Amino acid sequence: MKNTGTVIMSRQISGGMSPAQVYRCRLSDGTVCYLKKIGQEFASTTYSVQREAAVMQWLAPRLHVPEVIEHGMKDGTEYLLMSALPGQHIDTLEQNPQRYITVLAEAVRQLWSVDITDCPFRVGLDVRLQELRYLLDSGLADTEPAHWDPSTEFSDPQALFDWLCRNRPEEDAVFTHGDLCGNLFLHEGRILFYDLARCGIADRWTDIALCVREIRDRWQDGIWEDWFFRQIGVKKDESKLRYYMLLDEMF
Question: For the stretch 149-188, what's the b/e string if a residue is b when 16 or more beta carbons lie within 10 angstroms of its beta carbon?
């Protein structure tokens, strides 16, 4: 681990739907960074920030990601201190849907271009369903239907889990982000990725489905969804979209 100096200021920011806590920090040398913390009950899951640190270190020579400054475990809590990303968040492009979706599609293509031959991180359905079973049994899953997408036809968590187990699609393995959506920055013509704990080898529709859900939430006009599929060069498969959107509900 590096000598990071002293944290002289920190401010908690939203961690989204993740159970992790995220803080914006400033070190004694003026460096701005982010601290991410999560309880050890998540250590065996894709919420683990220790896992995220390992993913970031593996990805560093392959994609533009934050630098791992320090990571570890203290008092039953995993922590990850990472560098801040420069540039503008993809959300600043919301008023320009064509540009937004072009960037999103390019991010997907960059992820898929990562060689998975020696990738040690696997997040296919065997892993995700086993993880979901653990989260459900431990009371750590999001089982409140009010939090789910309004289009979700399930209201019972166990019924949804059983359906996911019975209806597993054939997987087309590539390197995936796992929670892509808006977790991107743009800087000097480059795409920078963050929130990387769920990265690894999985079906390419893992990312496609969540990108499509994001597009549908932002723009109800179907032309932009069609534009996204043209950009990534994939034919729309409604059954796979449905499966991977439903898989994400309790995470």
Answer: eeeeebeebeebbeebeeeeeebeebbbbbbbbbbbbbee
Enumerate residues 6+ apart whose C-beta is below 8 A from 206.
Answer: 123, 176, 178, 244, 247
Contact 159, 135 (CB under 8 A): no
Instruction: Report how far residue 130's alpha carbon sits from residue 110's, in angstroms, rounded to the nearest whole number.
Output: 28
Measure CA 40 to chain center: 19
* Nearest Cα residue to 226 out of 213, 239, 212: 212
Cβ proximity of 152 and 144 under 8 Å: no
Structure tokens at 190: 């480059």
Tens digits of per-residue pLDDT, 108-121?
Answer: 999 999 999 999 99
pLDDT of residue 8: 52
CA distance 43 to 15: 17
**Residue 211, CB-side half-sphere exposure with 13 Å CA sphere:** 31
Q: pLDDT value at position 222? A: 86
DSSP-based helix, strand, coil % in the chain, nearest 5:
35, 20, 40
Catalogue the active-site residues.
179
Q: Report angle CA 138, 43, 56 to the nearest 5 degrees.
A: 140
Q: How far apart are CA 249 and CA 180, in angstroms?
A: 15
Over the stretch 169-202, which tens digit does the pLDDT of each residue have?
Answer: 999 999 999 999 889 999 999 999 999 999 999 9
Residues contacting 248, CB < 8 A, separation 6+ = 209, 210, 213
For 26-79, the pLDDT digits (tens) are 888 888 999 999 999 999 999 999 999 999 999 999 999 999 999 999 999 999
